[in-house]
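Trying the structure run again after the queue cleared.
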Amino acid sequence: MAVASVALAAPSILSAQDTPWAEVGYDRILVANTNGDRLAVRFRTGQRYDTSNLQRLNWLWRDWRDGGAQRQIDPLLFGDLALIQTRMSLDFGAPKLILINSGFRTAGRNATIEGAARNSQHVQGRACDFNMVGVSPALVVGYAESYGVHGLGQYSNFTHIDVGPAGRRWAG
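Done. Tokens:
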């Protein structure tokens, strides 16, 4: 698999620089889904998660294609996305919106998706397929790889990341 190479230094989350934007940072995320829902929330303060904002993110990650089913999403996924989003926003000089194509999936809907893993991290609430608006998936993969995300898939028109077992890489 050809992966774009991006030389980046991973910042320390505990002493990460702030950003000039209220909606993007190492502890907050600017995200929308393809159903038209959009959130800008702080999901963590220091080492403590904000449970009400995690619930709002769980709702945005819901399987709106299957009756709005939802589950608790692993908050580590939000941390990985915020890290990628923050570094890209700083490098591009403007907030970059994350557009979720597929967050949580019910087992039933997952079974209808060609090529989807039977034990998909999506079904477990630990994955998302997304686009960073205005950025190629190859570049997003380069950033994600530089931060060592656990599961990383590069597709022609989106990127997959997950917080499942570490070291998995693929191209679709």
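The longest strand covers residues 28-33. Worth checking whether this holds up in the mutant runs.
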